Structure prediction request, 384 residues.
Amino acid sequence: MFSSSQFDSAAAFTGGGGGGGFNYSQSTQSTDPLPTSAKSRDTQPMVPVTVKQIIGASQSTDDKSNFLIDDALVSNVKLVGMAFDKAERVTDVSFVIDDGTGHIGCNRWVNEAVDRKEVEGLSDGMFVRIHGHLKGFQGKKQVLVFAIRPVTDYNEIANHFLECIYAHSCNARLQNGVSAPASSSSTLGTPSGYQTATSQFSQDYNLDGLNNIDKMVIEYLERPSSTGQEKGVHRNEIATQLKIPMEKILEAIESLESEGMIYSTIDEYHYKSTSSG
Amino acid sequence: MDTSNPAVFVNAELLRMHVGRRVRAVIQVLRSDGGGTVVGKSTDEQQLVIKGHPPGPLSTFVEVIGIADSNQSIRAEIWTNFGDTLDTASYNQVCQLANGDYKHLFI
Prediction:
């Protein structure tokens, strides 16, 4: 059944996070041994993020001065970027990290000789990996670093960004997955597995009244790879790429076409999004 | 070193979409003449010309951050040696994802 297989894969993501621990607290099927609750403080997962995600993070509603990235509580972060403006002081060392998506100030408190040794090898312009705690200070966000080391194998950079993408899409999928158990008991009569009765989708996509498969199809047709093709995308390609059975694709195409969001091009099998570009 | 502007991950194919903007790319150095240009192969196997003077000897793979001044060249401001071994396929994938579905995480 479509919905249950999707949900299982979401659970597999939470278990498969490995050392990083992508056990977001919204998950109801976490295979992680630690009890995760939205309020667990001592066992905060460490999330790989881009600086742009940090800059865009909103303050969480409780007073813990934690931040929300993708609506998940985040306090500990992993960053990989270039260090600049290193300023060594008596008790701490501060620098700016730029990972190509933005820059953020970081602070490393130096209490013992081993801490100082960790930072003295760093110089401006060097790629580093940072593990730290995200905090706000006088309205600005800052990372309180508890571990920093230079990057030696540069595959780490690509790897870090892929992890950020993975964590983000895992988190987004979990948020969609939360609605799945509630929906299995509701009978809304539309054929797809997921019911998007929640407002999560509508605020993101402004596609009220469309179900999940329609959204996936229109999203696929709005990608640059699809809009770049003059003749549009063959519906077989949509079915294989999204791994959705053809009859559901046909239903989605029909409903999108009646909404005026897609149109057929060279023949009835090829479609393009009307809002391309 | 001014990196106050975000730099987009690009390969040769994506470079043309960001001409005039700050970009970053990893290239495999093919040849470098002392005259201020380096010819390299991008992560998607196409040739790119990098203008500028590298700060020192270059390793096989180099990341350049700078302004894209044409479909095939970058005016580099920052050069970083990435060593002699690199998985270009994963970097290429990052470029595609960062410009595609996950653009909002990067730019």
User: Anything to note?
Assistant: The radius of gyration of chain A is 22 Å.
